[in-house]
Design a protein that fits this description.
There is one protein chain. This protein has 125 residues and is of the alpha+beta class. Among the domains are: 43 residues, no CATH class; 44 residues, Laminin (Ribbon), CATH 2.10.25.10. Helices cover 26% and strands 22% of the residues. The strands form three sheets. Strands 1-2 form a two-stranded antiparallel sheet. Strands 3-4 form a two-stranded antiparallel sheet. Strands 5-6 form a two-stranded antiparallel ribbon. The termini are far apart. Keywords: Disulfide bond, EGF-like domain, Signal. This is EGF-like domain-containing protein.
Length: 125
């Protein structure tokens, strides 16, 4: 009897692992990236973003070449975000005291220079 309960518990645990945790109308057959490997199956649209294994593998190639992880192009503590458009990254400079494509331009001093555009990255609230 003890072995039967153990087997039943194991079956229930494995079954819960594969349960779909979203509305049935929000499910699809597709692929996702898990631990830098494409895995295809059935699940939530939000998880299974890629329709085919080829689409998933193309996205995975992009992740492996993430410029933000290989060679962070953002300066002065800016946060690098990988994007699909060239040059493949965007720097978030808020709170660094710098702005520009690579957080490479010092924020202007408020009140100095008339007519200068004050970048939003330089606004401290």
């Amino acid at each position: 009897m003890h072995v039967n309960n153990l087997v039943l518990s194991l079956i229930l645990i494995i079954g819960f692992e594969f349960c779909v945790s979203c509305d049935p109308s929000q499910t699809k057959q597709g692929c996702l990236i898990r631990n830098l490997v494409c895995s295809c199956g059935y699940g939530c649209i939000s998880d299974y973003r890629y329709d085919t294994i080829q689409e998933c593998q193309a996205a995975l190639r992009g992740k492996k070449k993430d410029i933000c992880k290989v060679n962070n192009p953002c300066l002065h503590g800016g946060t690098c975000i990988q994007i699909s458009q060239q040059p493949g990254f965007k720097c978030r400079c808020e709170g660094t005291g710098y702005f520009g494509m690579r957080c490479n331009r010092a924020c202007p001093v408020p009140g100095v220079g008339r007519g200068d555009v004050f970048p939003y990255e330089c606004i401290v609230i």
